[in-house]
Amino acid sequence: MKVPLSAIVGLFFTGIYFFIAIFAPWIAPYGLTESVGDVWEPMSREHWLGTDNIGRDLLSRMIYGGRTTIWIATAATVLSFTLGSILGFFAAVIGGWADQTISRFVDLIMSMPSLIFALVVLSVMPVTMFVLILLMGLLDSTRVFRLSRAVALDVNVMDYVEAAKLRGEGRAWIIFREILPNALSPLVAEMGLRFIFMVLFVSTLSFLGLGVQPPVADWGGIARENGQGIVYAVPAALMPAIAIATLAISVNLVADWVLNRTTSLKGGRG
Amino acid sequence: MLKVRNLKIGATVYPPNAKPHDIEIVHGVSFNLERGKVLGLIGESGAGKSTIGLSAMAYGRGGVEITGGEVWLDGVDILTHGMGDLRKLRGADVTYVSQSAAASFNPAKRIMEQVTEAAIAQGKFSRRKAEIRAVELFNKLGLPDPEKIGTRYPHQVSGGQLQRCMTALALCPAPNLVVFDEPTTALDVTTQIDVLQAIKSAIQDSGVAAIYITHDLAVVAQVSDDIMVLKMGKTVEYGPVEQIINNPKEEYTKALVSVRSIYHQEKAPTVNPVLTVKDISARYSGTTSDVLSGINVELHPGQTLAVVGESGSGKSTLARVITGLLPPKTGQIDFLKRTLSPDLNNRTKEDMRELQMIYQMADVAMNPRQTVGTIIGRPLEFYFGMRGAEKSKRVKELLDEIEMGDGFIDRYPAELSGGQKQRVCIARSLAAKPKLIICDEVTSALDPLVADGILKLLLDLQKREGVAYLFITHDLATVRAIADSIAVMYQGQVVRYGRKSEVLSPPFDDYTDLLLSSVPEMKLGWLEEVTANRKMVSAGN
What pLDDT shows up at residue B128? Predict the structure, then answer.
């Protein structure tokens, strides 16, 4: 199987980021909240990325920040995917009033801009990681619902699904054994893209101050804290921006590769 | 006018576990074609007919490449042409009529615009002249309202009419050669006659040379002057039509000419029918007219009831009503002495087990992510609770019955041929030990030789297992071969019903007469005879 260069690059960087996220406590040279140097020191041998606005090692903050961002984004993606696809398949197979009700409810939620909605919710609820993951997952599950319902409808009209219905198979069999295996490929590719959106969403919320709260680091928060430094030509705020950008592009490249491989397979959406 | 010498065409294969490599798919084919004559290219799927036909305009579809030989068109070898010269040639001197007119017409443009497009773009005629020509061609091809039909959109005309528009499109730029690629395969038998007649007279009037590609020998016998029989990219036999039809030399040609040699002794009706359809009428919700009205048929155990009709006559809808996918408006269905619930959701597992269905397109009838073993094994698990060794044993037995070996258990549907796929579908329905199998056009998508094999298999299984078939088809030759009783459907009603011998003997009602006379026979001059004697215009015209 020939893997294109773009996919290799994507896989490499995604792999590095996830590795760093998982093994953060063993990799980071300094602690998360230790103040070890002067404010906004430039890059040096002791501090590879310099220090941040209150003297903490930026590299360690970035590593722990990556861990937080990736953890939140992954959890939110898993939640949105599970919820969205189960509801989507359910709506496609049941049809009729249940489908209409769920779809219109989802339309309602989608009609509100997610960022504004999130900001409103977060300004009244305590901003814990649990609340963040739950909120992001629920908001994003609407997009996954749309996609999985469309894919399931495509598969539902195939003769083999009708053959299963005529056999007398129950709904569970039809959803999990007939539809799901054929719908999996486009959904998996979509999962990569939703992950990127979650990374951007949590970083945006943190940058606006309503995401991850200090002293816990996450990339959006780091950008917020060090934002003033740009005026003094201190590149500290650019580090999280570069990290977010490279992670997003790498995951995108991998998702492209998965999508290209699945368009030639039968069944599911091409 | 067209001389093809030693044509070789190659393609690249990508086997799953090996490196991609090039192979030859057409091995040195040669033929001649003169102006005003028709060459019929005949063979099974994959023989190379369309590939060779398209090489007449130096085109390889799907990435195939012409690797050797010469194609002399009017004294010039077009294989040496550059792209610019080929563009001038295609659509002007050599035109192409494809199998599916519906897929070839742009649904967003009117017919006239598309029919005249090539003629105008290639500079052969001015717009006015091209449109006048188009209307003349519409008239010659027997289209209704030739002056106005060009203003319609493709979806506003029927399949047969659209195919004739495609022929007009190919003839409008006054080409030297027209390649017809299975133009009537996708049409009903009764519509096919009209289109065939139209094509034949158009070819004769305009004096073009034509290559007619098809897998139906009876059809090609009506229009060609010479026939070339192809198998796996090689010429099997090549000669004038009288010789090929009446005096075939090669074994393969003989097999093609004598297909449908199955004979089945008609059985007498028994006392207890396995299925009784009483007064069924059905209508799709939200529509104003009945799709089925007053259907009354019976099926006896171990026998075959053939339901014949054109597309739109209601045959498949009847199958949907019987299986419970479409609850009927009135009437009832009795199966094995009990009344079936009209809705699928209210039927018992036993009801569903004893009534099985086989579909027309085997590739979509099987889940592409399940192996053959899983597909055949599921009914065993589901209905009989078989597991483990017992299930494997039974799956092997079923594979034996369909004449396929154990090696197929772990294969996926995509790795099987068309005939093999249909056999697996048959095994799947047999696994449930049904009393009745509904066969919905099961051989329509298969080549004649492969379809023959499937029909023989079905008859053998019927003798052994005593299962009854409700055989839905539009192919009268199949009906003659395997039916015990026949129901002819037309526009949602049964116009003729009875034992095979009764239904197929005169006197006929008008529609059955039309249907029976529309089946192409392997006889030269049959087309002219039939068109002269037609009493009724077909519905799909």
Answer: 92
Chain B interface disruption, residue of A156, A158, A159, A187, most B CBs within 10 A: A159
Report CA-CA distances (Å) from B537 to B274, B515, B534: 37, 11, 8
Domain identity same for B205 and B317: no
User: How close, in Å, is residue A147 to chain B by CA atoms?
Assistant: 20
Residue B39 near residue B71, CB atoms below 8 Å:
no
Query: Are A168 and B352 a contacting pair at CB < 8 A?
Result: yes
State the pLDDT at residue A269.
37
Indicate if the pLDDT at residue B268 is higher than 60: yes
Tell whether the model's pLDDT for residue B126 goes beyond 50.
Answer: yes
pLDDT tens figures, B402-418: 888 888 888 888 888 88
The tokens for A2 are: 């020939």
**Mean of the pLDDT values across residues B437-465?**
86
Q: For residue B474, is pLDDT > 70?
A: yes
Range of the domain at B384: 275-505
User: Is residue B268 a part of any domain in this protein?
Assistant: no
Residue B536 maps to a domain: no
CATH architecture, domain A5-262: Orthogonal Bundle (1.10)
The pLDDT, as a whole number, for residue B536 is 55
Chain pair A-B, CB pairs under 8 angstroms: 49
Domain tally for chain B? Answer: 2
Chain A within 8 Å of B76 (Cβ-Cβ)?
A: no
Same-domain status, B126 and B217: yes
- Spell out the residues 6+ positions from residue B135 whose beta carbon is closer than 8 angstroms to its own: B146, B147, B150
Beta-carbon separation of B365 and A159 below 8 A = yes
Asked whether the predicted pLDDT for residue B107 surpasses 50, the reply is yes
Interface pTM, i.e. ipTM:
0.71
Give the confidence band of B259 by pLDDT, cuts at 50, 70, 90.
Answer: low
CA neighbor of B141 nearest in space, from B192, B91, B181, B200? B200
Which pLDDT tens digit goes with each residue over B488-499? Answer: 998 889 998 988
Assess whether B416 and B293 both reside in one domain. yes
**CATH number (domain holding residue B76):** 3.40.50.300
- Owner of token pair 């990799």: A27
Structure tokens at A188: 């998996």
- The verdict on a CB contact (< 8 Å) between A168 and B353 is yes
- B374 contacts on A by Cβ (under 8 Å): none
* pLDDT tens per residue, range B357-392: 998 888 888 998 889 999 999 999 999 988 889 999
Residue-wise DSSP of A96-142: HHHHHHHHHHHHHHHTS-HHHHHHHHHHHS---HHHHHHHHHHHHHH
Q: 164-193 in A: which are within 8 Å (CB) of B?
A: 165-169, 177-178, 181-182
Instruction: Report yes or no on B444 lying in a domain.
Output: yes
Partners of B2 in beta bridges? B33, B73
Asked whether residue B345 falls in the same domain as residue B428, the answer is yes
A45 at the B interface (CB within 8 A)? no
Question: What is the distance between the alpha carbons of residues B446 and B44, in angstroms, rounded to a whole number?
Answer: 9
Residue at a domain's end among B229, B257, B285: B257
Q: How many CA atoms lie within 13 A of B138 on its CB side?
A: 24
Residue B537 lies in a domain: no
Q: Are B197 and B295 members of one domain?
A: no
User: In this predicted model, what pLDDT tens digit does every residue of B476-516 receive, in sequence order?
Assistant: 878 888 888 999 998 889 998 988 888 888 888 888 888 88
